[in-house]
Amino acid sequence: xxxxxxxxxxxxxxxxxxxxxxxxxxxxxxxxxxxxxxxxxxxxxxxxxxxxxxxxxxxxxxxxxxxxxxxxxxxx
Length: 76
Description:
By secondary structure, the chain is mainly β. The protein contains no helices and eight strands.
């Protein structure tokens, strides 16, 4: 899945209560990805090879295109 800056990916299209979004990019090939929910947001600073859990799913970062997008793959 490719997350583009400014365009959240909704994990539940019907209600849009939970999603992932690129919030910003940092030096050194890192990005801040947030899990969005009505209960509050959780931010993760990630780089290629990092993993994080969101909504019960583990995601691995496979690419950070600075200033543009972050590519994630679901870890099964």
